UniProtKB/TrEMBL annotation:
<dbReference type="Pfam" id="PF13577">
    <property type="entry name" value="SnoaL_4"/>
</dbReference>
<dbReference type="InterPro" id="IPR032710">
    <property type="entry name" value="NTF2-like_dom_sf"/>
</dbReference>
<feature type="domain" description="SnoaL-like">
    <location>
        <begin position="8"/>
        <end position="137"/>
    </location>
</feature>
<protein>
    <recommendedName>
        <fullName>SnoaL-like domain-containing protein</fullName>
    </recommendedName>
</protein>
<dbReference type="InterPro" id="IPR037401">
    <property type="entry name" value="SnoaL-like"/>
</dbReference>
Amino acid sequence: MYQRFTPEEVADRLEIYDLFARYIHAADSHDIDAMDEVFLEDTVFDWTDSGGDRDLWKDAKQGDFITGKTFEFIFHMCGNLKIVFGPDGNTAVVDSKTIHPTGLRGRDGEPRLSQVHGGYTDQLRRTDHGWRIVERRWNDAWVVGGLHEVNGIPAMLQEAGVLD
């Protein structure tokens, strides 16, 4: 269905896309101060779909997952945002797709890498300081594990058996 956006809605969509980009960059660099500009203190995080907890941002931001103590290697790619505004234009639900390469070191010190696939369902609200995520739910799809680090494309080709 074709939909024509008003200039105000285009501006809101761009601000929401920027909010997600700021989150991704802050999360991957463990910049908690920058994530405070994305979430509110009482934002609810629901990671129960992947076996995690349900926390408030004020608690989650001090935990091992957000601070990087659990996973040393972290990288997000989040896109395909589907934004549906509430009737008043001051709330929105955003569904996004995420590929999340991540990992930690095994007992032998070698990286143990996985790739997580899923998405977020986020509830957003317009505040005096712009759009903020007020509730975030992770929706698990699948995880590929047992990956290990290789050094560059030649090593990757060697690993695949196409280069001697």
